[in-house]
Amino acid sequence: VEELRVLNRIMTELMSLNTGSEVLNHIAEMATLITPASRAIFYAVSESFNTPFELTEAVRRSKENSENQSVVDEEEAEIKNEIFDPALSKLIRDVAVDETPLLIVENASHGLSDRIQSLMGIPLKIREKVFGVLIAVSTIENQRFSEKDLYYMTFMTQQAAYLVENLALYENIYENLFSTLSALVKTVEARDAYTKEHSNRVKDTAIIIAKAYGCSKEEVDVLDFAGRLHDIGKIGIRDDILLKPGRLTDAEYQKIKEHPLIGESIIGQLGLWDREKKIVRHHHEWFDGSGYPDGLQREEIPILARILSVADAYDAMVSDRAYRKEMSQKEVLEIIRSGKDVQFDPRIVDLFLSLQEEDKFEQVYRSSE
Ligand SMILES: [Fe+2]
Fold first, then answer.
1. 173-366: CATH homologous superfamily?
2. Domain locations in the chain as residue ranges
3. How far is the centre of ligand 1, averaged over its atoms, from the C-alpha of 114 (Å)?
4. What is the pLDDT of residues 67-85, one digit of tens each?
5. How far does Cα 189 stand from its chain's mean position?
6. Window from 118-122, 223-227, 241-245 with minimum mean pLDDT
7. How far is the CA of 230 from the centre of ligand 1 (A)?
8. Is CATH 3.40.50.720 the classification given to domain 2-171?
């Protein structure tokens, strides 16, 4: 029970650290504090470099020597040189390949430096991949590691891995999460050959309208993101409904109508992107208030959602959908025009039609045809 309390305290301290390297350093320090380790080093391992690469090191300082620090440092450097030899390098790689913690209670027949009395090697796995190995060595006679030491350090290294993983995500939140989400959108679109690249074309079309409308650079960025992800909520809808060729039943249509809300909550998980969330939520609202999910009308609907809605409807109609024949360009534009004041903001429709007349969307549709 006492040990659990210690572990808990360590974990609380860990949580307060801010960067991945601080977390790793803390684990190495812990090894020298709670196990007989005289030295603990985190090595990065990778297929792309043969020799493990030192990330961080912790050394236990013995009190009696502390008065003459430079002598101690010199000795330490010498010991380290002796410890880190090709045999240790190979052992680190073996631990990484085995993905299993290793305990050498007594170093006798392992070909390692004689300096090493006892050794632990613990892989640090991030997202199912070994990213590093913690090596703890005892160079003091009769100070050996036990199964319990290995257990604690393995536990802490695992916790550190989770933390580093989360920190890494947080540090690169835009790149990481955005690419994950984009991959999800691609997955959704891949389920339906007819909607392939739909989101991308809608995004491109909407941006052209937004720029002509006079939206700021910031708004265009919001639209860029929200446009690509606007239908991401469809991953929450079953294929047999999503891909159904004929008419949908009322119940099925109700299901489809959930996708803006599902999409909003997926993006909401990230705790960012409030404006993008709103656009995803409201991209099926109608100007006259008869859309979903909230029945917003006119200017209550965010302008970027009003823009996206025209681009979305246009692309849906010009793309050959499973449940209807391709319409002529003329028919499509007629339907958009007749949606003025009903489904669409009339100003956006007028702008869209004049841009259409000037062939401003040609670049979006040329490549896909
Ligand atoms: Fe949609």
1. Hypothetical protein af1432 (1.10.3210.10)
2. 2-171, 173-366
3. 67
4. 667 777 777 778 888 888 8
5. 20
6. 241-245
7. 6
8. no
